[in-house]
Structure prediction request, 315 residues.
Amino acid sequence: MSSPTIKLTSGYDMPRVGFGLWKVNNDTCADQVYSAIKAGYRLLDGAADYGNEKEVGQGIARAIKDGLVKREDLFVVSKLWNTFHDGDKVEPIVRKQLEDLGVEYFDLFLIHFPVALKYVDPAERYPPGWTNADGKVEFSKATIQETWQAVESLVDKKLARSIGVSNFSAQLIMDLLRHARIRPAALQIEHHPYLQQKELVKYVQGEGIAITAYSSFGPLSFIELDMSRAQSTPTLFEHDIVKSAAAKHDKTPAQVLLRWATQRDIAVIPKSNNPARLAQNLDVTGWSLEQAEIDAINNLDLNLRFNDPVNSLKR
Prediction:
């Protein structure tokens, strides 16, 4: 089984369903990536600060060696961390990330957050984080325009085929489009029934920018991080509306949540180390929820955000 695709403004096709690499442990990462590729996943969504790009590369290399795929069959995504926003720091860190992954180019490269932090040499701290080597948050004076121009140069140098942003608001995207030589091809955002960001989605899709949702299962993605807000929020898997739709279509609650997004032209990047769930999570485009079910899930919106950088900046 493979995933249908979304045509990006860059001209490339992005799979509508991918495998997310956030919180994939280093000791199991290579095996999980290999299993995901074997199950049919072709989009792998990673980032520098996930701290597992070398292991992701090992899984990719093994899959290619075993003949499961060719490099051109894969859609490899990564992100620029906040401490590398200064224009002259972008290309060097991207080349390091590519080397860690063992690939020559990214299919899609995103600015991870619209937050510029002071440069921290990878020799001092890697994977990167929100703080410097002394545990302090220090801001950089790099503007989004400066960073975006450096990211655009990655396309010119064939280090990235498509570029985009993550965790940007509509207002920031409006500003970016004013000066962009290469328009962002994609936006990645936290998106689930408790945080639907409807106006942002409408605006971005109207601009022809593809949207990828992360944390499609809402609080479940954050419970293991000991986040009190996530622990006190009812899980979507147990919600009667989601469970009812799952029973009616003979699907899992996870499949219902993923189909709710893909049916609205939003890409998803779930993860699992369970072979059965890997296959199930990929099967979220070949069937449809009824409009009444979509409307009922739409009514669950609480504007409840879990991945808020302000929490990290309070350190």
The radius of gyration is 19 Å. The longest strand covers residues 75-80.
